[in-house]
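Lab meeting notes turned into a lecture example. A postdoc, R.K., suggested we walk through two folding results consecutively so the class can see how the record format repeats. The first protein's sequence and structure tokens come next.
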Amino acid sequence: MHRFLSISTKSNSLRIHHSSLSLYTHLSNPFNSANGSSYAHHHFYQNPTSQFGFHRFFSSGYSSLTRFYTKPTGFSSMKPPFRSFSSETDRESMEYDVLIVGAGPAGLSAAIRFKQLCRENNVDLSVCVVEKGPEVGAHILSGNVFEPRALDELLPHWKQEEAPISVPVSSDKFWYLTKDRAVSLPSPFHNRGNYVISLSQLVRWMGMKAEELGVEIYPGFSASEVLYNTNNKVIGIGTNDMGIAKDGSKKDTFQHGVELRGRLTLLAEGCRGSLSEKIIKNYKLRELRPAQHQTYALGIKEVWEIDESKHKPGVVLHTVGWPLDHKTYGGSFLYHMKDRQIAVGLVVALNYHNPFLNPYEEFQKLKHHPAIKPLLEGGTVLQYGARTLNEGGFQSIPYPVFPGGAIIGCSAGFLNVPKIKGTHTAMKSGMLAAEAAFGVFNKGLNMETYWDTLQNSWVWKELHKARNYRPAFEYGLVPGMAISALEHYILKGRSPFTLKHGKPDHEATEVARLHSPIQYPKPDGVFSFDVPTSLHRSNTNHEHDQPAHLCLRDPKIPELVNLPEYAGPESRYCPARVYEYVPDEKSRLKLQINAQNCLHCKACDIKDPKQNIEWTVPEGGGGPGYSVM
């Protein structure tokens, strides 16, 4: 079960601290095992805290189970992880057969599939999932019109098992927006048989399914570094130290990070995963395929509760055009969920040229369109969030296998751009990686079988068929629509050519002198809102007294390059006002980083013109707290 002590508190930071204590309790007092372990030695220590019967609970909207900190109920035995102590780093370590970084759709699908294979073959192998969010689902944000194909394969009885999937798509509309009109177009999305869901709620349910199979899930722990052996093989990850002050000193709450080691490590961090990016560069995985650079978009979303008379569960709407100009790729979505809730959002490709463009403000404008505003009238915003997504598709998928593991899900980039869906492909990639991993342990195979089966799967066929949609829009909206229509209705993905992406997103930003500033209207507090108001609705929380997790490689670049040449674009592309230029005592503008505002969207890591910003993980448990996204 998730490692949280059941001490009543409304403080997120306190809750994170308690989850840390629970993990250390587990380190010091592993589960008793009837079957033994595949590891040679186990060290058992009595921890005084474990004698007091601390309770723990599963952090989800579907269960409030509490039980003593002992063996999970429902299992006659559970193999303890190998525990050791590293004298070089003063960190304790735990060892598992499979270590998965990220409790999203891909990571949990991998964990579930691996344990299913263990049960089918009567094999006892351990799986650990580590998640930086304070609970499973807290950092998950997506549209989401869900295609259940992968879930049908993974858990075919999901309907009977009360998965939070209950709103089938009832209509599928596609509009071209001008400033004042909405022109209906033929819908290319084919969403019949799909569902409108909250992805954060779905992964909470998947987390429960994984734990029922014996998967160990540790939320609230940030994987901050990759561990290698002397042969440059990945052997696991290290988590952040907890309780470090801004000045680098140790606070009273200080606790060393832990080393989580795996015989195989699967990286499922989501789009622009920090460890995944390091692995891709270290092992030159793009060159191995070879693959093009990845290209990204920023998705900004709100969940509203609207008047019941306007609510039509299952209605799906996508738009292109206004408020974006014809040179900027993107579009909006509006999905009717259950319980009078709708999801409305805007996706903006991060290869836009104009440094004055502000994706957050473009989203605020969208809600005032005469075809959208009436639906929102009288409604209330429940939640706000933002996240980047991969749009490179087939051309940008790196070779996903590295010594000691593999990259799965959106960390590799399996989003189908014309479908605007990536959950089903991410899940399937995790399942294929799990099957390859089981083959390594049970059949003496290697992880390269993941790459082989991936290329022979429906994921590969689907992405290959969709490969030319996104790069077609390099030529603008109208040419892009024309090429997309040709691909969809006539060639049906059988083009004899493969289009290439343009410049990387950060290089696409043009200097400010080529553009005019954009004057955005002030928020009215009814349909449009300022950033602090929206940020409050994201439930974002970071411990203030900790080192900044947003690092400048060269602290001089903002004032010497970004501000004079690009008019300080980081103050606009960030949807959480993390970056602000403020005057110093001599009235000179200096970059101020409000790291506590960070939504973990990764836009800064991608869009900064000089790639000067490095996004690293903060203390575990920090960030947004999504519940209905």
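The second example is placed directly after the first for contrast:
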Amino acid sequence: MENAFAPISEACVKALSDKTYEKRKVAALEIEKMVTDFKTKKNMTQIKRIIDVLSRDFVRSNDSNKKKGGLIALAATSIALGKDTEKFIEDIVNPIMNCLIDNDNRVRFFASESLYNVVKVARGAVLPFFPSVFNALSRLVTDPDQSIKNGSEILDRLLKDIVIESSQTFDLDAFIPLVRERIMVKSSFARQFIISWISVLNAVPEINMVMFLPEILHGLFQILEDPLPEIQRMCESLLAQFLKIIKLDPTAADIPKMTNVLIVQAQSSNPLIQFYAISWIKEFVQLSGGEILCFSSGIFTAILPCLAFESDAKKNIKDCANAVNLNLLELISNGEDKQKNLSYLDLNSVMEVLRQYLVHSPVPTKIAVLKWVHHLFTEVHDEMSEHANKLFPVLLRDCLSDSSDEVVLQAIVVLAEIVNSATVKGNDFDQTQYRQFLVELLNLFSENNTFLEKRGTLIIRQLCRLLNAEYIYRTFAEILLEERINLKIASTMVRTLNMILLTTSDLFDLRNMLHDIRNEKSASLFECLYRCWAHCPVSTLSLCLLAQCYQHVSEIVTLFADIEITVDFLVEIDKMVQLIESPIFASLRLALISHSNDNADAQHLSRALYGILMLLPQTEAFHLLNNRLKCVPNYWSQPNKISSKSTNESQCNIKFDELFIYFKHIQDLHHQKRVEKRKKNQF
């Protein structure tokens, strides 16, 4: 009967199927000798038959011992063939590859060993099967059997050597998809395998891995979160190598594609991933210049939250994000390339992102956003004008109500810039724009009295520093007069404005302006403020003292006898007395001993202050004012010598009689309001 395994003898077949390794090894050596003889005789047909038998009847058998024997024999066949293995490479490699996924650990071990021996002989001839071999290796490195892992490492090193030898013909286009498919796996061993391959290929001068970096960059960043420090270090080193190459030759890299990847990674919850992503963005901003501005909205989304990091563990991320932010600001401000850089900026998408971060963001983030908005208004105010309407509600309703003074102040800087950027060209202010803004601000104060009391002074002071203080005061007064506003809100607003006027150094010029009501412009401002200040009697008194209308002050103090003296009234009087001792009212104190205007101003002022003294209970303020008045000459003995034509009031065009009537009318309204409130409370 003909031998079905010919040219392999039945004895050899039996030994090759034996359960002991030694017998299988002896049989494999016999096959190696047979193949050597056939090779010498150039009998390739018989060699092909041996390979077919080994593949069909052994390696593909269900018997694990036959599989092991067949695997050893195929390796022996390849050793015997030497360089001629290339002629049979497919018939030898494919059966072995199938056994690498066998359920039997020993079969997988012998398969990896067999493949190593075949690859060692075939070398470059195995490269057409590289994808299959690489796939197999990627599984072997995660095998639960340590001996298989060890064997796979040896095979892996060999395959890398072969690829390096054949670098000029290596199919990198086929390799990258293999990496991309496996780079997202969670196994530390698989990650180590992938990183090692990328590192090896990146070190080969003939291979340009940077051009394929956008396809694998996401996966590399994900490897940074591996729990094993060794894997993290390997990945960090690889990323550093890539970045070094990119910095040497930025044109070799697809920076735009990678920037999109980095923006996503920079929003990772993993600090290490976040740090490296933002570090790369920082480098790309410096390398790309203005072109990177087309990614501004995405970069803002990535870095703005990082500016609020407070822990020491994230300080490096915050510092890096700050650096990116400053670099982007410089690109917008760059004089030489400013216009070119701005052409890359998608203002609509940038403003959409910035507006989002103005609400429900930490303080440092809000401040950075507000500085950006202000910067854009100063650099491209024409283009930014269309965004003003959308920004106003956010700035007014959210930012000015923020718990942080720094946010409030910065928001006012932006609001002031928006108002200024909307003014007409020239020296005159756009009154409509100013008025609209102040009306909105006043509405905000009206809706929330606590907000006015806590933030009003801060906001108005900052506005006066940044805008035209005279116009702000005049407009506020006009609005309060024209609008049907709550009387309590009006009086609170007046007290706030008055205290700012009397105490803020930035309003020095405005106070000086009110000192001289003989000037037509000053007189106009005084009248406007007076009609508004009438809501608060003590504020009205302060305004008149500031304007040196001492005769009118005396008349108002006399009227106080008919006004309801409340606790709030006495508190305000107390504050005013304290202010009289301040540097702001130095001219008032000197007026008490002045001989100008035939002593008229001094006498009216003295009588007014004595009247105030009589209104005060004997508190600290009483004694303070009393001590001051003790230093004043006694004008009471000459009451009839005061000439109304000698007073400051007589030297201006202000109709004080009408103002006095108006003041009494407003005070009557307030009195009626208090009476109505008491009646309601009774029920």
